[in-house]
């Protein structure tokens, strides 16, 4: 019932947000249409890929962030990603009529992430694994950069050799055999340079991919550590409040005891008053 209500709100938001711009509706975009179809067919990983591609085209899309948050929260069991996209929606659309609902979903995702993290805190394999992956990526990136520099040096050396051979061909008068040998050497050097440049370009692309992955890992680790720290602060505040309960119970018991004593004194005074007033009444009656 909750999921149906949540999905209805999402559909309403898609209609409201999709029709606010001057251009066509966001939900009519081919990638968004493919996302909706994949999610309807319960192909949630495929649906997430379509949404990621759509967000690369339109990173400011509020409805896409909200849809991604819902997908990660309900279908992909990724509350951390859901928290990120819920926050992106609220930051981009702070005055939305549905901000209260989205805030509740965000808090639920935070509780879910907190519960998952609390179980793992006794043996934080995920954080250690993320740190290890970050370290391995950094080391691989350094090795790739070193290899790239080495290959660049080889390419420059071969280019210098080619320039030297070309210069010798132009300045020296040599027989046809020597010229043929030099041309063969020149062609071989040219082929080697091209192969090294192709290899260097592939390493450069791999280098960029590793740098991007490194940035994503650092951002993910930063977000996870920040959320864990917030949750620990909330937990510590709750423990402090819970520590006050025994003192409050002790004060309550003391007040009950004092109340009982006062009641006893009041009863005694009432009995004394009855004892004092009865003879006076008899004296008045003839």
Your description of this structure?
- The protein has two domains: 2-120, Serine Threonine Protein Phosphatase 5, Tetratricopeptide repeat; 125-240.
- It has nine helices and no strands.
- Helix 2 (30-40) packs antiparallel against helix 3 (44-57), helix 3 packs antiparallel against helix 4 and helix 4 packs antiparallel against helix 5.
- By secondary structure, it is mainly α.
Structural class of the secondary elements?
mainly alpha
Rg value: 38 Å
Unreliably modeled segments: 18-23, 280-286
What is the CATH class designation of the largest domain? Answer: Mainly Alpha
**Number of helix segments?**
9
Task: Tell me how many strands there are.
Answer: 0
Give the quaternary arrangement of the chains: single chain
CATH T-level topology of the largest domain: Serine Threonine Protein Phosphatase 5, Tetratricopeptide repeat
- Largest sheet properties: none
Count of the separate structural domains: 2
| First and last CA, distance | 83 Å
By CATH, the architecture of the largest domain is named Alpha Horseshoe
Which superfamily, in CATH terms, is the homologous superfamily of the largest domain? Answer: Tetratricopeptide repeat domain
Helix content estimate = over 70%
| Content of β-strand | under 5%
Q: Any idea what the shape is?
A: elongated
- On the 0 to 100 scale, the average pLDDT is 79
- Compressed to H and E, one letter per element, the order equals HHHHHHHHH
């Amino acid at each position: 019932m909750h999921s149906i209500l949540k999905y209805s709100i999402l559909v309403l938001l898609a209609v409201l947000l999709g029709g606010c711009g001057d251009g066509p509706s966001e939900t009519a975009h081919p990638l968004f249409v493919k996302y909706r179809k994949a999610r309807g067919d319960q192909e949630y990983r495929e649906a997430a890929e379509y949404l990621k591609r759509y967000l690369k085209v339109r990173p400011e899309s509020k409805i896409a962030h909200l849809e991604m948050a819902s997908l990660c929260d309900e279908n992909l069991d990724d509350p951390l990603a859901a928290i990120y996209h819920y926050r992106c929606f609220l930051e981009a659309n702070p005055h939305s009529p549905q901000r209260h609902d989205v805030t509740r979903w965000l808090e639920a995702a935070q509780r879910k992430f907190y519960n998952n993290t609390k179980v793992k805190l006794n043996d934080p394999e995920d954080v250690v694994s993320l740190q290890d992956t970050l370290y391995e990526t950094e080391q691989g990136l350094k090795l790739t950069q070193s290899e790239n520099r080495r290959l660049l040096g080889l390419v420059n050396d071969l280019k210098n050799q080619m320039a030297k051979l070309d210069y010798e061909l132009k300045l020296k008068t040599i027989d046809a055999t020597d010229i043929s040998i030099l041309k063969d050497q020149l062609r071989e050097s040219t082929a080697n340079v091209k192969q090294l440049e192709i290899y260097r370009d592939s390493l450069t692309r791999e280098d960029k991919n590793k740098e991007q992955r490194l940035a994503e890992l650092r951002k993910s680790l930063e977000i996870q550590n920040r959320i864990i720290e917030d949750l620990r602060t909330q937990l510590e505040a709750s423990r402090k409040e819970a520590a006050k309960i025994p003192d409050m119970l002790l004060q309550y018991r003391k007040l009950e005891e004092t109340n009982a004593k006062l009641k006893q004194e009041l009863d005694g005074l009432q009995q004394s008053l009855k004892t004092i007033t009865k003879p006076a009444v008899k004296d008045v009656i003839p």
